[in-house]
Amino acid sequence: MKDTEADSLIEIAHALADAARTATLSHFRTATLGVENKAGTGFDPVTRADRASEAAMRAILADRRPEDGVLGEELDGTSSRSGLTWVLDPIDGTRGFVCGTPTWGVLVALSDADGPILGIIDQPYIGERLLGGFGRAEFSGPHGQRRLATSAPRPLSQASVFSTFPEVGTPEERRAFAALAGQAQMVRYGMDCYAYALVAMGHVDLVVEAGLHAYDIQAPIAVIEAAGGIVTDWKGGPAHDGGRVVAAANASIHAEALAILSAAA
């Protein structure tokens, strides 16, 4: 891909994230959330902000990249005529959004037939944005800009492990996660996509999850891999379709995690 085309795609990705910031912040911590439960059983919330965020991003793509496909969480997908597909999660962590926590985010990815080639993790409320792809690994926030870089190798016994829910996947998957977590120095929960951002920033060693969708993970894959990390399924294969995912800061901790998690895969 020519540099000019890559620059254009990066500019569009930023435009999508900017539009989603505006849409989500207009509802965050207000009485205008309009929370609905889209789950048949349990609780899987969707808000006016989710729908407004995705609609705003899709409007930009319809105008500027009409040949590209779109896969989003809240609206029907459109097929690609260009070989490229935008994968959008308008609010990753809607439960946190509803509760007023600042750990939700907006995920924007661009994929080809082999998986994500560009990704943004954006946290609108605290104003942090991570971008990875086309040779770039960039962080911007209230305290400035810098290059992203994952952490150096250290053993699992000294590592930090994150997951969104303690109830990871199936009983078999929970046992595998518990075996891993039991060997780590620290385990934390509930960060949604912000945990993946922390891996890319060099603060967290591993994120381990199961039951993900493509829109949950494609942007984190692009960002973390651009920063020097590794994201695979629990067997070490591609993870861009979702399912069981391990995001690692480096090859060493990734190998340790796979040795434990692959028993459940």
From TrEMBL:
InterPro entries: His_9_proposed, Inositol_monoP_superfamily, Inositol_monophosphatase-like
The UniProt record lists the keyword Magnesium: yes
Keywords: Hydrolase, Magnesium, Metal-binding
Family named by the database record: Belongs to the inositol monophosphatase superfamily.
A Pfam family of this chain: Inositol_P
GO molecular function terms attached to this record: histidinol-phosphatase activity
EC number: 3.1.3.15
Keyword Metal-binding among record annotations: yes
Name of the gene this protein is made from: hisN
Top-level EC class as recorded in UniProt: hydrolase
CDD domains: Bacterial_IMPase_like_1
Organism of origin: Rhodovulum visakhapatnamense
NCBIfam families: his_9_HisN
Cofactor or coenzyme needed: Mg(2+)
Protein name: Histidinol-phosphatase
